[in-house]
Design brief:
Strand content: 35-45%
CATH architecture: Sandwich
Number of helices: 1
Radius of gyration: 17 Å
Shape: globular
Distance between the termini: 31 Å
Number of strands: 15
Number of domains: 1
Largest sheet: 7 strands, mixed
CATH topology: Jelly Rolls
CATH class: Mainly Beta
Structural class: mainly beta
């Protein structure tokens, strides 16, 4: 868990958010609750808690299951000062930095897809495991360019529809679930992104939100 800067951009108004005021954008100053919660879970180690491992806590990972089996990993992330979508969103992006290259275990032509879900209940990174992972509703997907990503690359995922759905239906925001799928299930791959405990704040996950008004 790390303190974060969560950036909000407003198109026409000066908005007072937390204790800072800017004409076009505002970065929330770090406070006691302004943190990132993140971690990953493993279906083949259902009680594994990444936050309890000094190396695993530095990354969040996704891996698809070989032949549709239980050999898969999923990640979860929440920005603690962002608990409610109070206005319509023009665009919102979840920003992640690649930690390691995809690991291809079986070599077949393939198309990978990132699934991003809206989490439906609260959770705690210090107890998060596959056994108690929060329920999620899938809202969007993103084609995953497995052959192109390099360590340090920025990977942006559009989460606009997820946030607007939460605004429209007045749903609380509990963060995002991230998983990986492959068109050819005979191949399995994994990728890791930097988590908030990676030791370099510049590589922390971030959420950028632009409101319609």
């Amino acid at each position: 868990m790390k303190r974060i800067f969560l950036t909000f951009v407003y198109l026409t108004f000066i908005i007072i958010l937390s204790s800072c005021v800017h004409e076009h954008d505002c970065e929330i100053e770090p406070g006691p609750t302004n943190t990132i919660e993140d971690g990953y879970t493993s279906a083949f180690e259902p009680d594994f808690i990444s936050q309890l491992d000094p190396d695993a806590k530095k990354e969040i990972r996704v891996m698809n299951g070989f032949n549709g089996g239980d050999f898969y990993e999923e990640s979860y992330i929440r920005f603690n000062d962002f608990t409610e979508v109070k206005q319509p969103v023009q665009i919102a992006k979840l920003r992640l930095y690649v930690k390691e290259n995809p690991k291809l275990y079986v070599f077949f032509p393939n198309v990978y897809t990132i699934h991003v879900s809206a989490l439906q209940e609260g959770w705690n990174e210090n107890t998060l495991s596959h056994s108690n992972r929060p329920a999620a509703v899938e809202k969007m997907t993103s084609i995953f360019p497995a052959d192109n990503l390099k360590p340090g690359d920025l990977y942006e995922i559009d989460v606009t529809d997820i946030l607007n759905d939460q605004f429209t239906h007045i749903k609380p925001h509990h963060g995002f679930g991230i998983s990986l799928d492959a068109e050819n299930r005979r191949e399995s791959t994994a990728i890791s992104f930097y988590a908030s405990d990676n030791g370099n704040d510049a590589l922390n996950p971030a959420l950028d939100v632009v409101y319609e008004w």
